[in-house]
Amino acid sequence: MASVGPSAASTQPALPSGPAVFKTIPYAFILPEIVCGTWVWILVAATSVSLPLLQGWVMYVSLTSCLISLLLLLSYLLGFHKNSENWKVLDSLYHGATAILYMSAAVLQANATINSEFSTNAPLNYQLNSAASFFAFLTTFLYILHAFSIYYQ
């Protein structure tokens, strides 16, 4: 018979708290996600938004994701999770859903980049939109890595 006591629960890896968050692989991706997502938002805001519907979605996804990821990072730093397994599920679901939303935003930003190539003030807007596209795809990749790396702990 298998024992289902306190010793079985101790084999699960503990969720990090405090500065250990920055040293543990899936959770160490949170800060780069926030930084790259902030760059997406700043770069899109710096352009003359020629396609407000497309780039509005990009700004919404990047800003909302940055704020929620910041709250998640603060909750890990302050230890709100109390080593509950539900936090792993929440973290994985959040990062998986955000990866899908960020992929849609990255594709729309790439479309806005292509359209900005032939607009007025083209060189500057094209360069800013290109950088925003790069960071949007990079942020998408970080969210995907975070979501899948929880399963391989």
From TrEMBL:
<dbReference type="GO" id="GO:0042552">
    <property type="term" value="P:myelination"/>
</dbReference>
<dbReference type="GO" id="GO:0016020">
    <property type="term" value="C:membrane"/>
</dbReference>
<dbReference type="Pfam" id="PF01284">
    <property type="entry name" value="MARVEL"/>
</dbReference>
<dbReference type="InterPro" id="IPR013295">
    <property type="entry name" value="MAL"/>
</dbReference>
<feature type="domain" description="MARVEL">
    <location>
        <begin position="21"/>
        <end position="153"/>
    </location>
</feature>
<dbReference type="GO" id="GO:0019911">
    <property type="term" value="F:structural constituent of myelin sheath"/>
</dbReference>
<feature type="transmembrane region" description="Helical">
    <location>
        <begin position="57"/>
        <end position="80"/>
    </location>
</feature>
<feature type="transmembrane region" description="Helical">
    <location>
        <begin position="27"/>
        <end position="51"/>
    </location>
</feature>
<keyword id="KW-1133">Transmembrane helix</keyword>
<dbReference type="InterPro" id="IPR050578">
    <property type="entry name" value="MARVEL-CKLF_proteins"/>
</dbReference>
<feature type="transmembrane region" description="Helical">
    <location>
        <begin position="132"/>
        <end position="152"/>
    </location>
</feature>
<protein>
    <submittedName>
        <fullName>MALL protein</fullName>
    </submittedName>
</protein>
<keyword id="KW-0472">Membrane</keyword>
<dbReference type="InterPro" id="IPR008253">
    <property type="entry name" value="Marvel"/>
</dbReference>
<keyword id="KW-0812">Transmembrane</keyword>
<feature type="transmembrane region" description="Helical">
    <location>
        <begin position="92"/>
        <end position="112"/>
    </location>
</feature>
